[in-house]
Amino acid sequence: KPYKAVINIQLRAGVDSYNLLVPHRCSGTNTFRQTVLEQYNNERTAIAFTDEERTRIINAENQPCDQFTIHPDIPLVERLFNEESLSFFANIGQLDAPVTKEDYYTVTRTELFAHNTLQHISQRIDPFDEVTGTGILGRMSDALLAQGFHAQTITISESTVATVGSPGRSDPPLVVSARGLNKFAPTRFREPFDIKEAIPLLNNATDGMSSIYGETWMDRFHTARTNAEELIEAMDRVELTQNYEQGGDYVRQVETIASLMMTHKERGVDRDLFWLSFGSWDHHQNLKPNLAASFQELNEALTLLEQELKAQGYYENVTVVLTSDFARTLTANSGTGSDHAWGGNLFTFGGAVRGHQILGDYPLDMTPGGPLNIGRGRLIPTLSWESMFQGVAEWMGVTDDDALDAVMPNRHQTGTRLFTRTDLFHDVDDDDQDDTASRRLRGGTQ
Question: Which residues of the chain fall short of a pLDDT of 50?
């Protein structure tokens, strides 16, 4: 089957996405005849965009503004949006059920505004714990495997529940360091003892009196060692096209993902589900300079990833999805920063993405008297994580309703629109795709 991959990037600690997608030219007004731009300037106070910062303008349809401006330090977003391979999700966030300003506190099961809770929830997307201990990418892998795909979940640098599937349905997630793979117990110069020769003796066949814990440890140890050796051999043959040497943590993570993608044939995989975390975006003080620095780092990493995917012929086969704990308050705090909030604006991009769209509804009324503002510019989301992930799951190959229910157990209870594959992606059948990746030599380029 044609290869596909989804890369879920979590912007850890809550990105201020109302300085990512900013109203610019607006005709939509609230009941007091204030335009969305006027509301934005009033609510954002000291951290509102200045005229000098409004340099990256995009056009929009079916929104209260026909023009928005993108943060000046993430030019990739403006370019990909105009190239029609990037779309925004407006005012998206965690929703357990439909809520209002009057009942959100009692109806919402999730503990709002806490980093640990909302990070965990956005990785699981199962607020009522219907499938205990599993995550959105892990359950997606389960469904793909059940439909005959060869799927693998991979996390970079750290373990996460996002990539964990139901026990017995799929393999445990692969965890790979962003700094590369290390060989097990390399022998030092003139070292007389080689531990690798002793491993089979130390972990030989068990007998009837063996501990189940010992057997489990032995099995995991052998699996990890074998996976590492095979991956090292495959990744050593990969030839990347971009220069990653001067990059920071974000760049190292996307370099690792690009290398892993090029080994999908050696791994016997036609569906990869990657998860990685970029942080921290918790800008309680000096929002503007700190956010600018974070966007510069994000822009560098995503630009390298985009250029690598295009150079290797994988761009049409990969979709990048951004999530975050939550957005930030519209209103600045005393440190000219912003605090923990709720709904925000994030994006997805890739060669198959039906771009140049702002999906959902950018808030028409941001004011404290409006129906969404629960205080200090904390806005109730009007799209849920399921709104985005349903179309992504369908594009990856999960099309059966029962399977989609298993992947997103709460999708019909959020009260939000669920976007489909045709909403989010170009309508191209898998069999008709130009699978350029399949024409690559294993572990490198042709």
Answer: 430-446
Q: For residues 409-419, b (16+ Cβ closer than 10 Å) or e, as one string?
A: bbbeebebbbb
| pLDDT at res. 259 | 95
Q: What is the pLDDT of residue 440?
A: 33
What CA–CA distance (Å, rounded) separates 239 from 266?
15
The neighbour count for residue 324, using CB atoms within 10 Å, is 25
Helix 136-146, helix 385-396: angle, nearest 10? 30
Neighbours of 14 (CB within 10 A): 28
Q: Please name the residues in contact with 153: beta carbons below 8 A apart, sequence gap of 6 or more.
A: 137, 138, 141, 163, 164, 165, 170, 173, 174, 273, 274, 275
| pLDDT score of 205 | 63
Q: Which pLDDT value is given to residue 428?
A: 54
The Cα 178–Cα 155 span in angstroms is 10
Strands 344-350 and 86-93: antiparallel
Residue pLDDT, tens place only, 48-82? 999 999 999 999 999 999 999 999 999 999 999 99
Q: Is the peptide bond before 280 cis (omega within 30 degrees of 0)?
A: yes
Strands 151-156 vs 174-176: parallel, antiparallel or unpaired: parallel
Q: Which two tokens stand for residue 180?
A: 């590369």
Q: How far is CA 101 from CA 365, 368, 371, in A?
A: 13, 10, 7
Name the one residue in this structure whose structure tokens are 């300003």. Answer: 101
pTM, two decimal places: 0.91
pLDDT at position 429: 55
Per the listing, tokens 């373990």 go with 159
How far apart CA 163 and CA 124 sit, in angstroms, is 9
Rounded to 10°, the helix 287-312/249-261 angle is 20
